[in-house]
Amino acid sequence: MTLTNSSLQTNGDADSKRTGSTDPNLQAWVDEIARLTEPDAIVWCDGSKREANELSKLLVASGQLIRLNPEWRPNSFLARTDPKDVARVEGRTFICSTDEADAGPTNNWAEPSAMRAELRGVFAGSMRGRTMYIVPFSMGPLGGPISQLGVEITDSPYVVLNMGIMTRMGETVLTMIEAGDPWVHTVHSVGYPLVDQSGITRPDVEWPCNDDKYIVQFPDTREVWSYGSGYGGNALLSKKSFALRIASVMGRDEGWLAEHMLLIKLISPEGGVFHVAAAFPSACGKTNLSMLRPTIPGWQVETIGDDIAWLRQGEDGRLWAINPEAGFFGVAPGTGETTNPTAVSTMWGNTIFTNVALRDDGDVWWEGLTDKAPEHLIDWQGKDWTPGSGRTAAHPNSRFTVAAAQCPSIADDWEAAGGVPIDAIVFGGRRATNVPLVAQARSWKHGVFMGATISSEKTAAADGIVGELRRDPFAMLPFCGYNMADYWGHWLKVGKELGTNAPAIFQVNWFRKGPDGNFIWPGFGENSRVLEWMIRRIEGTADAVDTPIGLLPAEDGLNLDGLDLSKEAVDQLFAIDQNSWLAECDLTEEYFDKFGDKVPPALRAELASVRYHLKD
Ligand code: GTP
Ligand code: MN
Ligand code: MN
């Protein structure tokens, strides 16, 4: 049975809302959290349009949401957060595995029972004076073979509204849980009770949160507890907490992959259909690439996902992938008609904006939406703003939340229960130096090495000199729910299972800079040229040259027709400097050493091979 998102949006009747569950585990858990947090009321969310309308009305009435001018942006809202609650808080994010070694050197670990006791302290009475919402959701199409269920308990109606866009949320999920489907437990509180222990009340604020924050994953029991933040990545627990941190552990145990990857369908001029999954660190262009409009004739790109992919070997032996989410939570600044027109048209209405600027006509604006800023705005902190204010009008991490179904480039089968078969996996970082525009891995192992060494320069390095590198292996540094080196081992194992069915692996870098300090490659829509080369490699019609760091396009192999790029610039895009690559290998070895014995020998061997060939 395949149900789509829209089939969940029944016209729920508020009077007929359920008051409990027949599933004893679910009911006991809800009772336990209610006893701990002491909310005034409990609401079981049905996922209906009516419910969403009532919640948004409530938030507009209390001043916690601003309704945008429906003439420009129907059924859309602006939320402004507390200036101290604007991004994920990695320093307060914990992986509480039983064994500390399972969290590894890249995660904060805390002993699970000590953390549970601490959480009981902060959650005690944390929902006093508030309503507790029970939000049942499915990651992936309902009942799909790769999909998983979850329930989030939250005291934030803003979170409920966002979850209704980002997941398939509502009554049907409860029915599935009651029929015995497993589910992940997640609890969230903004940590701003309206009544204190002695019964004294205080008024609510525009954005309730707490200076003390906890984003806690218990991978062994598949549980998440989040306290003190209302912001996206910390509060929408379906996303980074479940779909990446908890799901990566489920994947390790069950033989699949939960990845920080976009998913696209590519259609060649000959009508060939290919699917590509790509991992880039946050703010490195996933949402952009997922909605790319090709500049080369005859090629089409369709969107399947922009942030997370779950991948699993299918019965045919190939790797299949779904987008577990139902919406986009995208970065607003830099999203405009020239860079990502598809995203701009996706947000025509039914969109929640967080921390962007408000125009005098009741619409929204952010840096990069248009070339010229309006003469006057209310900035993300609610203050008057003019182009001369000397500060940005929108917060750099301001976001839009919108249903994927509204995306004009969404693929027809983006909700296919079994997913789509993956032809290519791409890894990319933000590198001013060293890393070429595109390289193909010689093998799955070499591809895993490329994924494990994703990084960005910490400082603006001069061309040819490697600065200190900010490592973000597989773009999963803040999201891997277990030891990163074990995760590399898991990828190697999955590759072994896939054997000759494994997708090809590539590395890309849109961000190489020339001696003048500017990006050499025009990027955005022009990235379709790089996708074309990948597909031609997979088809076996494009030549490559073997270099110490991978297979690069042969002379004239990359389609540069109609592009104004000098021969010199192209050479810079693909230049491999022996000395700086040897220096980079030393840094990679130092990085691997942090993981000690856990580093798979195959990755050490790949490093040795790169070094050997560089010295050739
Ligand atoms: P998260 O949603 O946080 O995981 O990040 P993301 O990977 O989706 O990042 P997003 O697509 O929002 O990246 C935005 C940034 O990358 C903006 O600054 C864009 O201008 C820049 N960007 C995206 N594609 C390109 C490109 O091809 N070339 C250049 N130079 N910049 C790009
Ligand atoms: Mn992301
Ligand atoms: Mn994104």
From TrEMBL:
What transmembrane ranges does the database entry give?
A: none
Q: Which residues bind Mn(2+)?
A: 240, 260, 307
Where do the annotations place GTP binding?
A: 283-288, 399, 430, 524-527
Which Gene Ontology MF annotations are present?
Answer: GTP binding; kinase activity; manganese ion binding; phosphoenolpyruvate carboxykinase (GTP) activity
PROSITE patterns given in the database record: PEPCK_GTP
| Claim: S-adenosyl-L-methionine is one of the keywords in the record | no
For this protein, what is the EC number? 4.1.1.32
Question: Where does the UniProt annotation locate this protein?
Answer: Cytoplasm
Q: Which residues bind substrate?
A: 88, 231-233, 282, 397-399
- Please list the cofactors this protein needs: Mn(2+)
Database matches in Gene3D superfamilies: 3.90.228.20, Phosphoenolpyruvate Carboxykinase, domain 1, Phosphoenolpyruvate Carboxykinase, domain 2
Q: Where is the composition biased (Polar residues)?
A: 1-13
Any idea which residues are catalytic in this one? Answer: 284
Q: Which residues form the Phosphoenolpyruvate carboxykinase C-terminal P-loop domain?
A: 256-610
Region Disordered, residue ranges: 1-25
- Using the record for this protein, list the coiled-coil segments as residue ranges, or answer none: none
Q: What does this protein do?
A: Catalyzes the conversion of oxaloacetate (OAA) to phosphoenolpyruvate (PEP), the rate-limiting step in the metabolic pathway that produces glucose from lactate and other precursors derived from the citric acid cycle.
- Description of how the protein assembles with itself and partners: Monomer.
The family database entries (NCBIfam families) matched by this protein are listed as: PRK04210.1
Q: Which PANTHER family match?
A: PHOSPHOENOLPYRUVATE CARBOXYKINASE, PHOSPHOENOLPYRUVATE CARBOXYKINASE [GTP]-RELATED
Would you tell me the protein name for this molecule? Answer: Phosphoenolpyruvate carboxykinase [GTP]
The species this protein was found in:
Cryobacterium glaciale
Q: Upper taxonomic classification of the species?
A: Bacteria, Bacillati, Actinomycetota, Actinomycetes, Micrococcales
